[in-house]
Amino acid sequence: LSEGLLFSSPQAIMQGESVSKPVLQVINTRAIATGNGPPRYRVLMSDGVNTLSSFMLATQLNPLVEEERLSAQCICQINRFIVNSLKDGRRVVILMDLNVLKTADQVGGNIGNPVPYNEGQGQQRSSAPAANPAPSKPQQQNGNLSGAGKSVAAAPKYHAPSNQFGKASAPSSVKTPGGSQAKVVPIASLNPYQSKWTICARVTQKGQIRTWSNSRGEGKLFSIELVDESGEIRATAFNDQADKFFPLIELNKVYYFTKGNLKTANKQYTAVKNDYEITFTNETTVVPCDDAQHLPSVQFEFVSISELENKPKDSIVDVIGICKSYEDVTKITVKANNREVSKRNVHLMDTSGKLVTATLWGNE
């Protein structure tokens, strides 16, 4: 294990320093409720000396926990991570990419006798004997984890199905139009308690400007969907902000977004997997990012067609399959507003052998 690496200065994960692929042991994982969004998993990890619970899995790594590949007592190598500072000063380490080097069954227990780390008091060590002593301290060597008298080959690297990441990464800070430096944070860390933030994200969906009129007045709006390595979020601009940002923001381009109101997402109007959404304000700034090959273009969580019958009504799912057949476009009249719309049925099949009908509406 990378003994003491979590907290020893200057190369400390918790200080956001550059640390090269630390090897740590999982002590426990715990699901955190996120409403209608995908679950988030908090991970308690050990370096053999201390334990820390400030680790959070990026949602694209959820299958590692759900398929029990990442479980208590397994040993993993952290390939990429982001350290985010919360408003109260605490830090959260978001795990973006990792390898499971040794399963829980292969390890057989906790390594060393680690004690909880109290940030600000330095590295703590326990003088008590190890509860589950290892015959020798495991070391990462040429892709194998050696120890206990023999070498164990590393488990195959897990590749999240939703993304393929390059080696490039976005700058950790960006200059705002006022000239000050703003720290870039991952989308997954955004919450309504933050007032100042900057994200670097790709625009994966851009709607047209729509107008409304009711008893309270009239106005206009347009919405976009944003994706980075940690997750996705919806953003909406109203009235003056809609006029300002609609011609500036292009589909599939990457931008720095600074400031904006964060509120609980209205799931009636969005299928984006995030409990929050952004509303642009007079203080919102949007700056193009030219070096962003690392950002994904879209996020998927595919399910088999055979599993659809077990999903609750009105669930939002991602399906991939081949088109077995399709029907001609037809016109129907919507009774609610007597408006005529187009529809087409497309029949899809996947490797499960099941068939499902997808209906496309309007310009789709």
Automatic annotation (TrEMBL):
It is found in: Nucleus, PML body. Keywords: DNA replication, DNA-binding, Metal-binding, Nucleus, Zinc, Zinc-finger. It comes from Todus mexicanus. Its main location: nucleus. Residues 197-278 form the OB domain. Belongs to the replication factor A protein 1 family. As part of the heterotrimeric replication protein A complex (RPA/RP-A), binds and stabilizes single-stranded DNA intermediates, that form during DNA replication or upon DNA stress. It prevents their reannealing and in parallel, recruits and activates different proteins and complexes involved in DNA metabolism. Thereby, it plays an essential role both in DNA replication and the cellular response to DNA damage. One of its GO terms (biological process) is DNA recombination. This is Replication protein A subunit. Residues 305-363 form the Replication protein A OB domain. It holds the Pfam family Rep-A_N. Residues 161-179 have a biased composition (Polar residues). It comes from the Eukaryota. Residues 123-141 have a biased composition (Low complexity).
